[in-house]
Specification:
Layout: E1 3-4, H1 26-35, H2 44-57, H3 71-80, E2 87-93, E3 99-106, E4 109-117, E5 123-126, E6 130-131, E7 149-150, H4 153-167, E8 181-184, H5 194-205, E9 217-221, H6 228-235, E10 238-242, H7 248-254, H8 263-271, E11 282-288, H9 296-305, E12 311-317, H10 331-343, H11 374-391
Parallel strand pairs: 5-8, 8-9, 9-10, 10-11, 11-12
Antiparallel strand pairs: 1-2, 2-3, 3-4, 4-5, 6-7
Helix pairs in contact: 1-2, 4-5, 5-6, 9-10
The structure holds iron/sulfur cluster.
Length: about 400
């Protein structure tokens, strides 16, 4: 069973009424400073660089701690903007060290973010890109939750900031990081939210800030083929494909998006992914479902399908969730499947299930927000708007 720990670090639940600077790209940050009249246009770039270091290298949430910024400027910044983190509603730590945060971005807008130690170079953060998902993959718990909305770049970056607060990893360490990799494998289909995902990657990868290299950022998609090229061009992120089946009939069932973009189109899109090479291989994710997709014949079909693509294959033992229609393949079956792939020269690690006791494992994420009825969400939104109007300075 997971352990729920104290939430004393959680920020205030009050919805910020001022724009949050920590979700802006560098050019947006410079423009926002000028627009608010805090900085003259000729100083905007310099001031944005200075603030950027404080926000993204040191992780500050208080303008007053920016010691090399003049006192009057700090006051003007605090009046016009905020750096507040969203509220951490729940924090759980698994027996295996996996951490899961339920983060409330706004009333009724909650996402789960998971930190998995000892993955990637030293630890990976699995971030969400949407609240809920439209795609209904039948093996995925998140898919049973209706889409609430896309997350903004600020809300995606906030997940990294919350994790780093909790891991006490500010300022950005040059080496021995606990959080070394980012994977967009949490809730949602990132390619249905590409503008915000790309802006968030620009912020996360910036060398003078959080500084996680683009080669350590992986975006996983269920196969939105038209967006693969733009993803590569705009982000230079590593690509992962949620594959799970080697023929259209089965994939139509497991990943219904396949009806729109069948395997032939998907594989052509992957082959054309910008920057694909032996050093930048695509990862195919393949969930092992007992008696569904786990036979040696399917392993061979998989080899056929990906022939010639620089790739590795992650075999994911299915993580059951309440009401799920599948069971996990037996260990021996998974090993036999992996052996076929290994013999053909593909790295095909079997992913160790992590955080199962706190429902943090792959495909298990689902926020509590869906339990809130739409009418309740509207009521909360209206209450938040009313309180913002009350707090706003008189014209
Ligand atoms: S696997 Fe990804 S795309 Fe499919 S339902 Fe789950 S969150 Fe959505």
């Amino acid at each position: 069973m997971g352990v729920t720990l104290d939430l004393s670090r959680a920020a205030s639940a009050a919805a910020p009424t001022r724009p949050n600077l920590s979700g802006l790209t560098r050019p947006q940050l410079a423009a926002a400073l000028v627009e608010a009249g805090v900085v003259r246009p000729e100083k905007a770039k310099m001031r944005a660089t200075q603030l950027w270091r404080w926000i993204h290298h040191y992780g500050l949430t208080d303008f007053d701690a920016m010691t090399d910024v003049a006192k009057e400027t700090r006051a003007a910044l605090a009046e016009a903007f905020t750096l507040t983190r969203p509220e951490v509603v729940e924090r759980q730590v698994s027996r295996d060290g996996t951490r899961k945060w339920l983060i409330r971005m706004a009333p009724g807008i909650e996402v789960e973010t998971v930190y998995i130690p000892d993955v990637g170079r030293s630890g990976a953060l699995c971030v969400s890109s949407q609240v809920g998902c439209t795609l209904n993959c039948t093996f995925c718990h998140t898919g049973t939750q209706a889409l609430v909305r896309n997350l903004t770049a600020a809300e995606i970056v906030a997940q990294v900031q919350v994790a780093r607060d909790d891991l006490e990893e500010w300022p950005s360490p040059k080496e021995d990081r606990r959080l070394s990799n980012i994977v967009f494998m949490g809730m949602g289909e990132p390619l249905y939210n590409l503008p915000h995902v790309a802006a968030a990657i620009d912020i996360i990868a910036d060398n003078e800030g959080i500084a996680i290299s683009r080669r350590r950022i992986t975006v996983s998609t269920s196969g939105v083929v038209p967006e693969l090229g733009p993803l590569g061009d705009q982000t230079q992120a590593m690509l992962a494909i949620s594959l799970h089946a080697t023929n259209d009939e089965l994939r139509n069932e497991l990943v219904p998006l396949n009806r729109k973009y069948p395997l032939e189109q998907l594989m052509a899109g992957i082959r054309a992914y910008p920057g694909l090479s032996n050093a930048r291989r695509v990862t195919f994710e393949y969930v092992m479902l007992k008696g569904v997709n786990d036979s040696p014949a399917e392993a061979k079909a998989l080899l056929n399908l990906i022939k010639g693509i620089p790739a590795k294959i992650n075999l994911i033992p299915f993580n059951p969730w309440p009401g799920s229609p599948y069971a996990c393949s037996d260990w021996k079956t998974i090993e036999a499947f992996a052996a076929v792939l290994n013999r053909a020269g593909y790295a095909s690690p079997i992913r160790t299930p992590r955080g199962r006791d706190i429902l943090a494992a792959c495909g298990q994420l689902k926020s509590e927000s869906e339990k809130m009825r739409a009418s309740e969400r509207r009521r909360l939104d209206q209450a938040a708007l009313a309180s913002q109007a009350k707090d706003a300075p008189a014209a």
